[in-house]
TrEMBL record:
Disordered: region residues: 52-76
Listed name of the protein: TRI46 protein
Lineage, highest ranks first: Eukaryota, Metazoa, Chordata, Craniata, Vertebrata
Chief place where the protein resides: cytoplasm
GO biological process, alphabetically ordered: anterograde synaptic vesicle transport; axonogenesis; microtubule bundle formation; neuron migration
Amino acid sequence: QTSMKNMERELVCPVCKEMYKQPLALPCTHNVCHVCASEVLLQHGHLCCDPTSEPTSPAATPSTRSPRLGRRSVPKPDRLDRLLKSGFGTYPGRKRGAVHPQTVSFPCPACQRDVDLGERGLGSLFRNLTLERVVERYRQTINISAAIMCQFCKPPQLEATKGCTECKSSFCNECFKLYHPWGTQKAQHEPTPPTLTFRPKGLMCPEHKEEVTHYCKTCQRLVCQLCRVRRTHTSHKITPVLSAYQALREKLTKSLAYILSSQDTVQTQIAELEETVKHTEV
């Protein structure tokens, strides 16, 4: 729990104190939300793009956008006029080379230094997609862990502490005991961490209780990772389960095709033999 809290602190924007949304990487290696950076520049008199416009990317889906974006307003027209008259940015009728180009200085809220962004301002910065994906995964982890409740408790539901792959359900401690009574076959079910998506349980090695991953052609049996390192399989031809499955399936398909193609011939021979039997009986 402590490590999760520490990680969450690393994923918080120093301006809005919320998790990063479309973080921009500053030259000083710190990060700041795209919207927050736009607002900071506007507060310092720099005209930049509309802070409510979001660049498109796989990480910026409607479900992950910050609720605070809807509360932020576009700068008022009179404020924009003041900024334009003061000589910042470009606008129709003004030539780019008419005035000495101005570099944009951004006060980093993390290191308290003025960072030079050049003429383009925020346009010169890159989105930190790696950080964005980390934030998204962290959000999903928090949402999933918070949503897993016992599926058998009477209201109010308790938080699930155990999962069962065979039952495909999540239980609290008491419900797990109740639905897996001692002395029954269900008592043999092994508890797993609670989850909302139960992956089908694979074939298990009877010797090591590990999931089988390979096939030993020499012994003609499935083996797990522990089986592979044993001396009994030294110099044996071992292949992944998928490769062995595809090879055996192809061989079986050919055998079935041969049998089906010979079916008419076999039926004809059976009919001839039945006629011979009747003739012999007569």
